[in-house]
Design a protein that fits this description.
With 357 residues, this protein is of the alpha/beta class. The chain has 2 domains: 159 residues, 2-Layer Sandwich (Nucleotidyltransferase, domain 5); 137 residues, 2-Layer Sandwich (Nucleotidyltransferase, domain 5). The protein is globular, with a radius of gyration of 20 Å.
């Protein structure tokens, strides 16, 4: 699931609970260039906790995007995350990749809390020789077949073929590796703050050492504003977005909204801190040098300032187009910059190639 192949490029399609994001790239002599970029909102409750509740609505949005952007590519990469996906780093006796493929089914049964017949399993050797003599570090990923089937079905109905299914955390990591240079030997944290799921991926020396999906996100802010101000979901969403995306740099948020956003930010930042504290207690490595945020919720200033303050670590909001060639005549630089944090997963998926494992 990691690493970039050399086959034909894929359309990166990030189907989130709040919106569908799409990115298409093409290889250049210097790296990659942006070909297509789009984002379209989904009606509330089309997807709840990662489960597709209104498939026709999702299909319609994807179809409209393909038509609007005149997409000719029909092969796509999609991502999954949440409680239907299990990621574990395990130690196994040193063996070849072929031997690992053969033995992983029964090895995985010890670590997967689902029926082994209900999941698709993938595996990646992280360190061929771990600190433990005769052992190797392996990343084990299991995703429920039913969820993958639901996502590939809506993509298929929209006229695409999902030829690759990645994990959201690793898609963010793919674009990070292209756009940023993580210092050798240091630990950085990639946090993707979606509408309903927060994906955490901790990298030490460029290798995943810990991942966790937290089932909370930007919807919490909208729901709390809606509840405390007794307004509709759409009005609450507009107020929340007005604070984040207001075109006037001095846009004023009503004081009550600021208060609610501050309270929810405290809860989200505390949950992130708990995950990082857990990581610190289970590993000898507890020196995080930087935190990189992505996802729509990362644009809430109160949140990333709180995360920085609570953890005492520098925080930066990622730009997945930082090292991607962008034609300013074709794409509005201001709008691209504004939407960039939302596009981390889609960009990571667009970096994948036909034939990647």
């Amino acid at each position: 699931m990691l690493g970039l192949g050399k086959g034909k490029s894929l359309l990166g399609l990030d189907i989130g609970s709040h919106a569908v994001k799409m990115v298409q790239l093409k290889p250049t002599k210097k790296g990659f260039a942006l070909v297509h970029f789009g984002i379209a909102p989904l009606s509330p409750e089309s997807i709840i906790d990662g489960a597709i509740m209104n498939a026709p609505a999702v299909v319609d949005v994807i179809r409209d995007m393909l038509q609007t952007h005149k997409i000719k590519t029909r092969e796509a990469a999609i991502a999954v995350s949440g409680h239907s996906v299990i990621i574990k780093k395990i130690n196994l006796p040193v063996m070849t990749a072929e031997e690992l493929e053969e033995s992983i089914q029964w090895e995985a049964e010890q670590y997967i809390p689902f029926d082994i017949n209900d999941v698709n399993i993938d595996v990646q050797i992280l360190r061929p020789e771990s600190a433990i003599q005769g052992q190797m570090e392996v990343l084990l990923v299991a995703a429920k077949k039913e969820m993958i089937s639901d996502y590939t079905a809506v993509v298929g109905e929209a006229g695409l073929q999902a030829v690759l299914v990645d994990v959201a955390s690793f898609a963010v990591q793919n674009q990070f590796e292209v756009n940023y240079e993580a210092p050798k030997g240091e630990t950085v944290v990639l946090i993707n703050l979606g509408a309903s799921v927060i994906n955490i991926n901790i990298l030490n020396d460029g290798i995943t050492t810990f991942t966790r999906d937290i089932n909370m996100g930007g919807n919490l802010f909208t729901e709390e504003v809606q509840k405390q101000l007794n307004i509709s979901y759409d009005e609450a969403e507009a107020l929340k977005l007005g604070g984040q995306y207001g075109k006037e740099s001095d846009a004023v948020i009503p004081q009550e909204v600021e208060k609610v956003i501050g309270e929810v930010s405290q809860n989200v930042a505390s949950e992130i801190q708990r995950s990082l504290d857990f990581y610190s207690t289970t590993t000898a490595d507890n020196s995080i040098s930087k935190i990189y945020l992505s996802g729509g919720t990362s644009k809430i200033p109160a949140l990333y300032k709180l995360v920085e303050k609570k953890l005492g670590v520098p925080v930066e909001v990622m730009n997945p187009f930082r090292n991607i060639e962008v034609d300013a005549k074709k794409f509005d630089p201001g709008y691209l910059q504004e939407m960039a944090p939302l596009m981390a997963v889609a960009t990571g998926l667009a970096l994948r190639r036909v034939g990647d494992k």
